[in-house]
Amino acid sequence: MKPTQICEVLNRFLLDGFASDIFQAYQTHKIDVHGDRIKLVPVEDLGMISSGGISVGEYIDILDRGAYSAVFMDGSIIYIQATFNGHSIDSHRYFFIPCPFYEKATMSKPSHFTLADWLRDSVELEGVEAFRSVGTYRFDCVRELPKDTSVPHPISHMTFGSADCRIPVKGPLSISYFMHFIFDNFFRPQRPFWLGYSSYLNSGDTEITITNLEIQQHHLNWEEEGV
Asked: Which DSSP helix (H) or strand (E) runs through 12?
């Protein structure tokens, strides 16, 4: 599918997910054209956050700014940003950020409170007791790599647990494959809803960016076919 069509389907999926109480908030995505590159982004950019985890302040700031693709009912956040070369993904930045508050804090929110305001109050009332330690999951495809070759930095990689933990990935991920990772591992009851959209968010041919040296290490292999 063309990037513009993928953007339309993604926005429809997020809107329908909001209407079906899978998401409690979402942001519309747009297409920006820069030369021969087509960028799909949310209206509000996420910016930089800690790679190995997230603080209460960072998380609430994301909610305040609306710098996400969608917020699940449990407070977990997804962020989708991808750049296309033709119909194929050239680079991407996908985030899955589990909610850093204990479950009761998010599920007990009254409807007239925003999630950010409710959690801000929880921190003031309960302090560190409101917080639970969880990491973030980030899938990146980055063409311009750092010049410092002493630090492993595969073109396609997943980062979690630590900023230094970059697990090589076979190649760029489609939006569909990233969402399969989310619904297969964190939101299985909602997976049938997602599958109604999954085949429309694939993109172009599968590119392999993993090196022979990276293949000899722990890495993530995947196949788009049949996804």
From this structure: helix 3-19
Total domains in the chain come to 1
Is residue 223 situated within a structural domain? Answer: no
Burial 108-118 (b: 16+ CB within 10 A, else e): ebeeeeebbeb
User: For 92-120, what is each residue's pLDDT tens digit?
Assistant: 999 999 988 777 777 777 778 888 888 88
pLDDT, one tens digit per residue, over 15-62 is 999 999 999 999 999 999 988 889 999 999 988 776 667 888 888 899
First to last CA, the chain: 15
Q: Domain range holding 144?
A: 3-215
pTM above 0.85, yes or no: yes
Write the DSSP symbol of residue 220: B
Total count of residues recorded for the chain:
227
Is residue 147 scored above 70 in pLDDT? no
**Which three-class secondary structure state does DSSP give residue 107?**
helix
Q: 222 lies in a domain?
A: no
Q: Is residue 194 part of a domain?
A: yes
Question: Residue 95: exposed, middle, or buried by beta-carbon count in 10 A (0-12, 13-18, 19+)?
Answer: buried
Question: How far is CA 168 from its chain centroid?
Answer: 17
224 in any annotated domain: no
Q: Which of 162, 145, 163 is nearest to 154 (CA)?
A: 145
Residue with tokens 């697990």: 167
